[in-house]
Amino acid sequence: MHIGIPKETRDGETRVAATPETVKKYVGGKHTVVVERGAGTAARYLDEAYEAAGATLGTAQDALGAELVMKVRAPSAAELPQMKSGSVVIGMLDPFDAEGIQQMAAAGLTGFALEAAPRITRAQSLDVLSSQANLAGYKAVLLAAHHYGRLIPMMMTAAGTLKAARAVVLGTGVAGLQAIATAKRLGAVVEASDVRPAAREQVESLGAKFIDVPFETDEEREIAQGTGGYARPMPPAWMARQAALVSERCKQADIVITTALIPGRPAPTLVSAETVAAMKPGSVLVDLAVERGGNCPLSEKGLVVEKHGVTIIGLTNLPGLVATDASALYARNIQDFLKLIINADGALAIQRDDEIVAACLVCEGGNVARRN
Ligand code: NAD
Known about the structure:
alpha/beta, Rossmann fold, 2 domains, seven-stranded mixed beta sheet, 12 helices, globular
């Protein structure tokens, strides 16, 4: 197949969907690859490295006009007209954005949104949500440490002892668990909360304390199990008890990292404005859910703001701040997915009955794929 790697055009997007490493594999596997000049520069992958891996360099039009286009973000309104009807696009295409998917369908594209892959063992190596959330969790703690005007570890010095920072992590999926691990490595005392009961063991195995919000009804217990590993919205009574406990823990904390998400819905509010007002001056809150409305109503998308003496970090695209590694992992995710839609001769052969392929397919033949 003829594969195109365009430069990402979304504001602040530094990642690229293929690296010289994966390009070399594609070229070795009977594909031809055209990389837009400068596509990898922001992620520190230079044009010469792509050429050395066997790609040709071209324009945006050359890359977007390929039979198979690898993207980080969904094609923009300016990119869509440059793509060929009947071509395949793989990327983080935002499967819940009905309008965006409709536009890709109308352009005649076959679209695979990798965020929609099921959370099953076989899908782990192509799981873009995990590969990127893991880095976001890591970077969130480093950002918090940078903005926190004190040290994280306990330190005994000749001039006196400094206390270890207290960190609270809310939502302990992939990003939250990595945030816990990173905060622990830096020497913080960490507490964490999640709605899914399975999270407790994972939190404790990382050496953090689980903030337990007891279930009072069978309904609460049942909803908390989630669906397919994902959380569901909890009843208001449970949310109110969680808010009270979280508020107590946040008042003691120096660093709060929030990562709670519910697929296809706005992020739940976990840290209220009143809680922020009661937090210690100089403390830092990183809201990783900001793109989906935020876990804190005071966080502002794309900004670092100070409210009631608390620094609130609402930066989006934290994986883009570690673009070299984020791209390397993302590119390998795509490479792994390709095996499900390409045959041994390098021709398109979409395995439609494969549950991963079926889940990721968002549009084909002018139609939006039916979502379950
Ligand atoms: P996510 O990004 O969708 O959500 C982050 C976390 O927020 C989740 O742990 C969720 O339970 C939590 N959350 C939601 N509402 C909350 C609330 N009110 N209070 C506290 N926490 C709340 O999660 P994710 O990182 O994408 O992981 C989702 C699931 O998928 C997890 O069970 C994870 O273990 C699983 N997973 C499986 C695989 C695999 O087997 N291939 C790979 C990655 C993740």
